[in-house]
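User: I'm putting together a small comparison set for a docking exercise, and I want a reference complex before I start. The sequence is below, and the ligand is pyridoxal-5'-phosphate. Could you produce the 3D structure with the ligand included, as structure tokens?
Assistant: Of course. I'll restate your input first, then give the structure tokens for the complex.
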Amino acid sequence: MKKMIYLDNAATTQVAPEALDAMIPYFTEFYGNPSSIYSFAGEAKKAMEEARRTLAAGIGAKPEEIYFTGGGSEADNWALKGAAEAYAAKGKHIITTRIEHHAILHTAEYLEKNGCEVTYLDVDENGLVSPEAVKAAIRPGTILISVMMANNEIGTVEPIREIGEIAREQGILFHTDAVQAFGHLPINVEEMNIDLLSASAHKLNGPKGVGFLYIRQGLKLRAFLHGGAQERQRRAGTHNTAGIVGFGKAAELAFHSMEQRAAYETKLRDYLIERVLTEIPYTRLNGDRTKRLPGNASFCFRFIEGESLLILLDQNGICASSGSACTSGALEPSHVLLAIGLPHEIAHGSLRISLSDKTTKEEIDFTVDRIKEIVERLRNMSPLYEDFVKKNG
Ligand SMILES: *Cc1c(COP(=O)(O)O)cnc(C)c1O
């Protein structure tokens, strides 16, 4: 097999060797159920609580405000459904945005079917949510504002602090899906006025299938899974001890290296963006130029299909992603690209490249060279492009 170039770190990341090493003893040696009372189980419980302290400290929270879940999607579901149920007497209006992850959007649609009213805020051409628009959408009966910290497709980082301030002033709960931001950008739930926050281990070199929901102390929120008394009676189910330990270790590494990693990825990302935009005509960058995740570059190439581009990149050993999601058999362009105002035909030609701190300049150069060739090849087969070139000389 050819050497693989992995540029889809927004989809998932490789588990850090240190995180894997930390996990193994909780499969082999300390396999006790952390809820059991004998001292053997205490080893697992101790390690789990240490992970909880690390994760909490990373966002300026208390350990008892961290509730482990089976990942980011569960945390998002819990935040919305749990708040809607707990605050039903206060109101049934929720404010969110058009560019959220489907774990939020599909949950919001589910809640609408069950009597909630949801406002989906528009964003500007760079994917930014306006704090003023959030404020204007608040009405009597608004119980929750949910705005993601950073977008998974176009990388835009939202003005969370400003939105948090508005939520606090108005006495409304504020949730943020920080799955893309956690471990990559500095977060402080106090300074940012965040009441609920979702995170997931596998986006920061931890294992898949484990995440957490931060729930501000004193906040009412319905239990999501019923059963045992785990997670202070709010999330039943035997703990994923090894996963939690791996999450803690991955987060510890991510917090320590955050600044340096962000600087490295930002520099490489900007080099990639610069090369693509100057060397490939009829190309646009999606998302804000500077308010963006260090590792994210998202483009649209006119006159091509993102899917074809991905397949041809794959033949060159390059893993990337397009914004499109295959829904109901038809290829729908990404809801995020439509929300920033792109017409369907442009949104279809999207490519997301997401870097890690292991990505090298050589890999980026190889990838840009391949993208150039492939885009040219695909355009030469496109009747639309042919017409366009004829018309524009
Ligand atoms: C990946 C992702 C999720 C889902 O997290 P899982 O742990 O994969 O369930 C939710 N929100 C955002 C922004 C994501 O990028």
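Residues 71-73, 76, 101, 103, 148, 152, 177, 179-180, 200, 202-203, 211 surround pyridoxal-5'-phosphate (CB under 6 Å). The radius of gyration is 22 Å.
User: Thanks, that's exactly what I needed.
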